Amino acid sequence: MKRKIILLLTALLATLALAGCGTFTCDMCGKEKSGKSYSVTILDEKATICEDCHDGINAIKDAFK
Length: 65
Ligand SMILES: [Zn+2]
Prior knowledge:
Layout: H1 2-22, E1 23-25, E2 32-34, E3 37-42, E4 45-50, H2 51-63
The structure holds zinc ion.
């Protein structure tokens, strides 16, 4: 019985660790996001941004073409 609980806890911790890896805070909009993150350099500063902000930057880039 005890072993089952330990196994359950281990499985739970593993799930939490995975979830933690998938979330990040976007440096542009400041929102906590899960899923795809983009590493960009804005004015010589490295930033991690979400997909929405990345699309926004691309839209601005396109506008200046
Ligand atoms: Zn964002």
